[in-house]
Amino acid sequence: MNQDINCVLVCDCWGCKEWDEEKLQELLILGNCPMELLEKICLTPFQKMKNDICRWTLTGKGNISTSSTWQLARVHHPENNIYNQFWCKVITHSMGVFLWRLVLNRIPVDTKLQWRMMQMASKCRCCKTTAIETAEHLLISSEAARWLWNYFGKWMSRDAESMEDEGRIIPRLRKWRSLFPGTSHLHINFVLPCLIMWFLWLESMTALSKTWNSMLVTSRRESSCTWRKKEDTAG
Questions:
Q1: Nearest to 101 by CA among 168, 185, 163, 169
Q2: CA separation for the pair 201, 210 (Å, rounded)
C-alpha cells in the first residue's frame, strides 16, 4: 500500500462484508502500532450503507455536552488543596466565602480600602496600641490574634509562635494542616484556623460598627445642639 496513512479512509479497509485484515496489518506496520489493535478493529461493527454519525469522545455516550466542552476549553490551574479546609460540611457558606475571599486578598481591610483610593486613617481594632490594619496583621499578628493562636496552639500541644510562616495567611493554614497529618477534614484540628480567622473578622467588624454608630450619635447630638442655639438666638 503506497498510500499516506493519514489519508486512509475507513471504507478503504472494509471489504464487502468484513474488514480487510491484510490492509489493516499493513497500516498498523506503517504506523508502528501494536498488532493487538487488529483484533479490536475487527470486532468493531461497521455498516457501509448507513450515514456516518458524529461521536463526542469526551462523554461516555458520545453526545456533546456543555460541561465536557467547558472542561476541554478551560485553562486548568494546579489544584490548590488549601480550599479543602474551608469548603467542607463543618464550615458554613458564609465562612467559606469569607475565607475564599481572604485567600484571594479580597476582604475590605483598611490597607485594601486605601489601595482603592479611599482617604482614611488605618487602625487595627484588635490591638490596644496603634497599628496599621492589614489582613495578615488583623488575623495573625494583632494582639487578639496572637493570644488566640497561642491559646489554641497550647491547647493542642502546638506552639503557634514557632510556625515558620512569616505571619502570612496561606502559609499559616498549610503549616497548621501539616501539624496534624492524617486528620480528617471534618476534625476540629483541621477547621480550627478557619474558625479563629472568621471570629476575629466578626469581632473586628462589630467593633467598627460600634465606632460608626457612636460617631453617628455624636454627630446628631452636635447638629441638634447647633439647631437649638440658632432657635434661641432667633427668639
A1: 169
A2: 14
User: 16: exposed, middle or buried (C-beta count within 10 Å: 0-12, 13-18, 19+)?
Assistant: exposed
d(CA 98, CA 141): 19
| CA–CA gap between residue 142 and residue 134 (Å, rounded) | 10
How do the domains of the chain map onto residue ranges?
Answer: 5-73, 82-234
**If you average pLDDT over residues 183-196, what whole number do you get?**
81
* Each residue's pLDDT tens digit, 190-235: 888 899 999 999 999 888 888 766 655 555 555 555 555 555 565 5
pLDDT digit string (tens) for 94-133? 999 999 999 999 999 999 999 999 888 888 888 888 889 9
Torsion sign, CA atoms 22, 26, 31, 36: positive
CA 160 – CA 14 distance, rounded (Å): 72
Average pLDDT over residues 30-51: 79
Distance of CA 96 to the CA centre of its chain: 10
Q: Please state the rounded mean pLDDT for residues 3-19.
A: 75
- The number of angstroms, rounded, from the C-alpha of 188 to the middle of its chain's C-alpha atoms is 21
Q: How far apart are CA 172 and CA 166, in angstroms?
A: 8
**How would you classify residue 205: left for phi > 0, otherwise alpha for psi between -120 and 50, otherwise beta?**
alpha
User: In whole angstroms, how large is the CA radius of gyration of the chain?
Assistant: 33
d(CA 161, CA 187): 22
